[in-house]
Amino acid sequence: MLEIDSLTKRFGGLAAVNDVSVKFARGTINAIIGPNGAGKTTFFNLVSGAIQPTSGRVMFDGRDVTGLRADQVARRARPPSSTWSAALFNPRPAASCSTGAT
What we know:
The chain is 23% helix and 28% strand. The chain contains three helices and four strands; from the N terminus they run ββαββαα. The protein is globular.
């Protein structure tokens, strides 16, 4: 789960993102919509760690990842539970594989 708690980003006197709190459940599809200048890109930059928030927290799977880059969050992620995702996150040569070609 991704949880955003009271996230704020100010540039001088302008609040581009102001006290946003929201939860995104695993396996759901969500959208952030709004007019130009509404703060959507700033919000994504805050969540992804590209920029630091003025205040608030970003929590991923119960861990505070505020301000961490995506690669740092991925390294702290819990071990994958399925074999398929384990293969994606821990690639290693297979003992045998086939391309289907004859």
